[in-house]
Amino acid sequence: MSKRKHEYRYEYEKEFANVKQSRKGKSYAHCCYCDSDINLEAMGKTAISAHNTTTKHKNFARRIVGNHSMKTFFTSKTLPTKIDYEVAASEGAWAFHTAKHQQSFLSNDCTTQLIKTIFPDSEIVKKFSSARTKSTAIVTGVLAPYAHKKMLSELGDQPFSISVDASNHNEVKLFPLVIRFFSSRVGVRVRILDLRSMPCESSEQIMNFIVSSLEENGLELEKVTSFCADNAVVNFGGCKKKGKNNVFNRLKERTSARLIPIGCPAHILHNAAEKAAERLPVDIETIVLKICSHFKSQTARAESLKQFCSQLEAQYTALPTHTPTRWTTLDNVVEKIIDIWEPLKHHFLSLKCPPRILEEFFKSEQSLIIITFLHSALLVFKKPLLLLQKTTALFPQLADIIDSFKDAISQRRSSEFYGATTAELLKGLKNDHAEMLKSRFQEFYTITMDYIDKWYRPEEHPGNLDWTLLRNRKVKYEEVLEMAKQIDPHIAMADELFDEVSALNSLLENIPDDVFDKDDPEKKWMNILSETDYLPLIYKLVSIVFSIPVSNAFVERVFSLVSAQWTNERNRLREQAVRALIQVRVNLEDFSCPEMHNLISSDQRLLKQIVGGNKYK
Q1: In this predicted structure, what is the pLDDT of residue 570?
Q2: Which end of the chain is more exposed for a tag (fewer CB within 10 A), N or C?
Q3: What contacts 24+ positions apart, CB below 8 Å, involve 437-440?
Q4: CA 371 to CA 374: how far, in whole Å?
């Protein structure tokens, strides 16, 4: 009777740190120290013990212990074990955590050792090794490619829009390329397709960047529904969007599909507020910047202001910062200045030699009235700007947002309303001074309206979009037809469109009231289109409309993320690493860190990539 042959057991790894299963088969163990296979058939575990007593093994073991870093570069012929994959999932989740929460790769050198110290009994922690080099490699070589492929998979064959902008990071000019699309499976998605640096921003260079990025990702320019950017001449050629030497025209010449221009409405509102405020008797922005500069990093000055607040029974609050490139952030500072007006006034007028511009400002009886009016007026800008900055905002809602804003400004102008507090303060002025300020306030409203009318051009956008919001259960074929004529004439000519509208109305009638009233338009369409495949024409129309952004705010968010990652303290980051961090941060934003750990644990391809060495390429 033949003896039973011994096979490799995973329990051996707990007793012997140097062994793993060999690729030669189940009856072999592989020694990681001396790179040799151990036959277990006859002796089993005893064969490993005998091997570990050999002179060859001991010599290699001393070298490994003396220089543990060799393990990083050691090419093992063993198959990864279960514990190896558990360690890989942990290292992948930790790298994701580093990217998601904007931590530095350098800090992972300490973190790895700290985790080992805190959890010495964990078998996973014993093998956990995710210092700066490895965590960077996992982000750039595993997670970022996965995020990119996931984004392209979600996009599929759907139509999409493109958005671009440029921003300087020290001497580097960065260009993100953002796409937006809608599908019944994932809803509206806004993702980053590419991030590159270019020496300048000519229209030809930007156009080549867009086209090359699309080609590299296997995307067709014919699928692009709209081009969104700020209203710079290089992007659109001016408010009338004429001329040939601009990005929009260059792209339009390369596609037969209708390309819709979206000059960022949020930028238009920002600029309108800035232009209108320039006609006020006082340059409030200069005053605000001067006040903030006066107190910045000046403890003694801040203490003086606190004392005046205490004496005048006012609540002291530190003044927030104002970003000149985002003009309406001025309102946050203006509100605080109004709250502590008297303490500020006493502080500056008590100085022996205050800045002349601030001395004159606080001595004038008109200053508080002007700044109070501006605060009241900027509140009208606040709501539409918040709506335009929402990622989930839908293009059919844009007209309502802008029209509501214009109505509010128009009502204030026609009613000569400048704010309730402003009206009370005006009563304290001489009549001629009060009338002069009222005329300037009226001019503020007029300039705002004129600027909006000049730069916001709804005639360039498709109309008859309201039905896509599904505000009621009845969709009119005539409205769908008119929209289709503007967006895709081929669909408008299809008789099947009428039948699809009839089928859609039947579906809408059968949706329970509580569901119909609760769900937003995006959710309604996801439910309708995911449950049926006989509305292909309507699906395409909705996908086109929902792919169009209402503003360029998401691209601005990308710049904020870059600034948070690529700080002065992290100035050694390469552009490739920054691009990977942003791809992970943006394209995997729906995942929490525990969810990412679960995903990696269940994905053999990701586990093998983390365990393997190709991630370092």
Answers
A1: 65
A2: N
A3: 437/281, 437/366, 437/369, 437/370, 437/373, 440/279, 440/280, 440/281
A4: 5
| DSSP 8-state code for residue 79 | P
Q: Which stretches within 340-473 are classed as H helix?
A: 341-350, 356-363, 367-388, 398-415, 420-426, 431-455
For 149-205, how does the pLDDT look when each residue is reduced to its tens digit (9 = 90+)? Answer: 999 999 999 999 999 998 877 777 889 999 999 999 999 999 999 998 887 789 999
Q: Given this structure, which CATH class describes domain 152-263+552-611? A: alpha beta
Residue-range domain boundaries for the chain: 12-73, 82-136, 152-263+552-611, 269-458, 466-547
The 10s digit of each residue's pLDDT in 288-314 is 999 999 998 889 999 999 999 999 999
- Find the helix or strand (DSSP H, E) in which 262 lies: strand 260-263
* Mean pLDDT to the nearest integer, 327-331: 74
CA distance 20 to 40: 12
Length of the chain: 617
Gap between the Cα atoms of 425 and 533, Å rounded: 63
CA-CA distance, 468 to 525, in Å (whole number)?
Answer: 9
pLDDT confidence of 327, banded at 50, 70, 90?
low
> Tokens 């979206």 correspond to what residue?
262
For residue 72, what pLDDT is reported? 45
Directed axis angle between helix 284-295 and helix 367-388, to 10°? 90
Who contacts 339 (Cβ-Cβ below 8 Å, separation ≥6)?
314, 315, 317
Kindly give, in sequence order, each residue whose CB lies less than 8 Å from that of residue 367, ignoring residues fewer than 6 positions away: 282, 361
pTM for the model: 0.82
Is residue 177 within 8 A of residue 210, CB to CB? The reply is yes
What is 109-132 written as a DSSP string? HHHHHHHHHH-TT-HHHHH----H
